[in-house]
Design goal:
The structure is a single chain. The strands form two sheets. Strands 3, 4, 5, 6, 7, 8 and 9 form a seven-stranded mixed sheet that branches. This protein has one domain: D-Maltodextrin-Binding Protein, domain 2, CATH 3.40.190. The C terminus is likely disordered. By secondary structure, the chain is an alpha/beta fold. It contains 13 helices and nine strands. The protein is globular. 47% of the residues lie in helices and 19% in strands. Bound molecules: succinic acid. Succinic acid (SIN) binds next to loops.
Length: 347
């Protein structure tokens, strides 16, 4: 049996207290460590998404500033959208807001957002996203370790090119930059164009050097990334929509303290309202600025010209209907129907 002297006992006590203090201060330091949310995206600050990311950062700083910090990296300054999807899955970043088109390798259901002439306007997209089937789309990434938080709008897409793209035959042989989406690829092939998947950050230079001839995007992206400077014609086709899915890493999200997560939920709801209520106006302002610049001629389609584009692209719906699923197709068609030109032939 070991007998301890008074000196030994005091020393042992000292060691135990010191170890306890060290453990307490380490766990305290961990608890006090700010939670970092890295949020890269690919467009400029002066866009619906750019403004949304800033708003989110500001609201988090005001309401959770001692516990959470948001770092926003606009204009692909940290990484491209493609790289960000992978980095999010690996937990290297914590939030993204990428176009649904770019998530099509994770779930085919998101391909619905790219179907040409499915949604007539922002209101139609909003109706679909608010429907039970639409809301359920936010959960479909869970099997991939990702958690959908919200839908953010940008706006309707327009075609731009070196000549007026008034009819599908005007697209024949042109190289079109598209997002990383199989539906968009099929859409351009359907009109005889040559689709080139390319990150957003490379588009301006590709148009400038002639690596691609044409592209499709929203007025806010065309204006803020200055594509109108290198496109002689922009045609208001309104043939598709850019919709973002705000996504986080599932493990990051579920590991958050409950009170932080619920405050973030509220901030995200407020930010989403902020983005979605301004997106259309921001696109209208961008369109006016492009018009004022005089650098690109802006053309409208006649109803007959629009119908010709719709007819040429109609087979794309059938090509992807099976992968998207009948429930999603039906809900999207129903949401778009009330404002749709009934001359459309897709159904
Ligand atoms: C974006 O709006 O985030 C980019 C869209 C694109 O890649 O064209």
């Amino acid at each position: 049996m070991i007998t301890l002297t008074r000196k030994d006992t005091l020393f042992l006590l000292f060691v135990l207290v010191a170890a306890g203090l060290a453990a307490w201060s380490a766990s305290n330091a961990l608890a006090n460590k700010k939670i970092l949310i890295k949020f890269p995206h690919s467009v400029s600050i002066n866009t619906p998404k750019g403004q949304g990311a800033e708003k989110f950062r500001e609201l988090v700083a005001a309401r959770l500033g001692t516990r959470v910090e948001v770092e926003v990296y606009p204009s692909a300054s940290l990484m491209t959208d493609d790289a960000s999807i992978e980095a999010l899955a690996f937990g290297e970043i914590q939030m993204i807001a990428v176009p649904a088109s770019k998530l099509d390798r994770l779930t085919k259901k998101f391909q619905v957002f790219d179907l040409p002439f499915l949604f007539d306007d922002t209101e139609a997209v909003e109706r679909f996203q608010a429907s039970p089937v639409g809301r359920n789309l936010l959960t479909v990434l869970e099997s991939k370790g990702l958690h959908g938080l919200a839908f953010w709008h940008n706006g309707m897409k327009q075609f731009g090119g070196p000549k007026p793209l008034l009819l599908p035959e005007d697209a024949v042989g042109l190289k079109f930059r598209i997002m990383e989406s199989d539906v968009l690829q099929a859409q351009i092939l359907a009109v005889g164009g040559n689709p080139q998947k390319m990150p957003f950050a490379e588009v301006y230079q590709a148009l400038q050097t002639g690596a691609v001839d044409a592209q499709e995007n929203t007025y806010s992206n065309l204006y803020s990334s200055r594509f109108y400077e290198v496109q002689d014609y922009i045609v208001e086709t309104n043939h598709g929509f850019v919709s973002y899915i705000l996504v986080t890493n599932m493990k990051f999200w579920t590991d958050l303290p409950d009170d932080v997560r619920s405050e973030l939920d509220e901030i995200i709801a407020e930010t989403s309202h902020f983005v979605n209520s301004r997106a259309k106006a921001m696109n209208d302002i961008a369109k006016q600025k492009i018009l004022d610049s005089g650098q690109s001629e802006l053309l409208n389609l006649t109803p007959a010209q629009r119908l010709a584009w719709q007819k040429a692209m109609a087979p794309v719906w059938e090509q992807f209907r099976g992968d998207i699923g009948e429930d999603v197709m039906a809900a999207a068609i129903a949401a778009g129907q009330s404002s749709r030109d009934t001359g459309a032939t897709q159904e």
